[in-house]
């Protein structure tokens, strides 16, 4: 039972860290920042601008999106 609760706590910590990273990066980006579920690292933040079009394998794993904070419409 302790192993399960420790795993859940670590997973939640990884998710919150990835969301915080995505929020920080979004402030200085034209592109949306996505938190995806990763089999190895738990959760990671990716920049949509790193891809021409997100592959379906990544889209299926997106769990949170932070819109880009910069705008080039002046």
Descriptive account of the structure:
The chain is α+β, with helices and mostly antiparallel strands and 74 residues long. It has one domain. It has 2 helices and 3 strands. It has helices at residues 2-26, 56-59; strands at 33-38, 42-47, 62-66. The protein has a 3-stranded antiparallel beta sheet with strand order 2-1-3, covered by helices on one side. The model is unreliable at 1-5 (pLDDT under 50).
Strand and helix layout:
Blueprint: H1 2-26, E1 33-38, E2 42-47, H2 56-59, E3 62-66
Antiparallel strand pairs: 1-2, 1-3
Keywords:
disordered N terminus; 74 residues; three-stranded antiparallel β-sheet; flat; 39% helix; 23% strand; alpha+beta; 3 strands
Q: How many whole angstroms does the radius of gyration measure?
A: 14 Å
Stretches where pLDDT is under 50 for at least 5 consecutive residues are 1-5
Quick one: biggest sheet?
Answer: 3 strands, antiparallel
Structural class: alpha+beta
Helix percentage: 25-40%
Number of helices: 2
The side-by-side strand order for the widest beta sheet comes to 2-1-3
> Distance N terminus to C terminus?
56 Å
Oligomer: single chain
Name the helix and strand elements from N-terminus to C-terminus, one letter apiece.
HEEHE
Number of domains: 1
Overall spatial form: flat
Question: How many individual β-strands?
Answer: 3
Please tell me the overall pLDDT: 83
Beta-strand percentage range: 15-25%
């Amino acid at each position: 039972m302790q192993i399960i609760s420790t795993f859940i706590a670590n997973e939640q910590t990884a998710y919150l860290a990835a969301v915080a990273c995505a929020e920080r990066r979004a402030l200085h980006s034209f592109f949306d920042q996505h938190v995806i579920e990763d089999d190895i690292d738990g959760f990671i933040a990716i920049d949509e601008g790193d891809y021409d079009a997100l592959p379906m394998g990544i889209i299926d794993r997106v769990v949170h999106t932070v819109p880009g904070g910069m705008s080039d419409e002046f």
